Sequence to fold (144 residues):
Amino acid sequence: MKNSSTVLCYKIGYYISLFGVATILLWIGAFKFTHTEAEGIKPLVEHSFLLSWLYKILSMQGVSNLIGVIEIAIALALIVGIFSPIVRKLAFVGCTITFLITLSFLFTSAKTYYYIEGVPVTDFFILKDIPMLGFGMISMNKPK
Fold:
């Protein structure tokens, strides 16, 4: 990236991605505090070998609230990470773990894949975590 316009485009893209991911995490994290979302994520979480144990120690709403707190904390860490390399590294770890767990739902949840008019489809809201995982991984290094 020697060309100054290339560097500028990279910086703009980085910050659009950062604030985009942070906004989505804040929004989805806040929604986790609703009964509707707690019910909505239950089939995904209860079939997850990584998360199903949470229902043994917390209520349905408690599990959803915990996930919401984690998502909001990661969003805030992404923003604070602009100014703090240590917080940026924590945000990187949080993003990577969160999005890998969410993507694992594609393989652990019942009725993840189904056919519509002969085309295999999935719950596409989970697929948003693929580029979000990618951003989380590159967020370790902020553009100079």
Q: What stands out?
A: The first helix runs from residue 4 to 31. The chain has seven helices and two strands.
